[in-house]
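**Fold in tokens:**
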Amino acid sequence: MKDHGRTARVAPLAVATAFGVVAIFAWESVVLAQQTTPPTQSTQPTKPRPQSAQASRPAAPAPVTQASAPSSGGVQPLLLGQYGDWGAYMATPGGKKVCFALAKPAESQTIPANRPRDPAYMFVSSRPAERVKDEVSIIIGYGFKPNSDATIDLGGTNFPMYTQNDGAWIKNAAEEARLVDSMRKGSDLVVKGTSARGTQTTDTYSLKGLAQALDRVGQECSTGAQR
């Protein structure tokens, strides 16, 4: 996995300018929205250089049960396969192949209870043209408290995430490969974060099918050669 540091490490969002890396987020969030009841609008953060992120919102997809992804910016994401609670997808913005696995929380809780929020998603993305493999990110469904961290708890091990707007990314890129390996072997993980209004959120993600989804993503988007 390339240590893309705090540069343009991306997770899925709406197509931004000129099919840049930002475009990846749009497809991933739109696609995931189709695996359940689609949200009115799906948000995706661009991985910032700290202090510089922008968020775009793709058009809401038509309701479908399991993913025939709508076009985004003229590019049609392709469902590669549905594996348990995770889907594997591929798109080619600007002719550059992007693949991603994504899922929605199996359970969500807020303190105070029942606070409204937009849908939350988790993404694991690969971009061969940038030699990026298995980049983990989340969209939490609200604006994070400024300068706060989110956390992933997997089997009692915590992985801090830095946040901006409504997105979060692994703070220490060197830990990302270990996290993904643990995700492949685990049964679930918990993401915790705090909103700008002080709402504490706990999202539990099932990891059923993730290993198979990532294998399929790896077959389609090998970082060993640019496609």
User: Anything to note?
Assistant: The domain at 17-220 is CATH 2.60.40.1880 (Immunoglobulin-like). The chain has three helices and 13 strands. Residues 125 and 134 are 5 Å apart (CA to CA). Confidence is low (pLDDT under 50) at residues 1-45, 49-73.
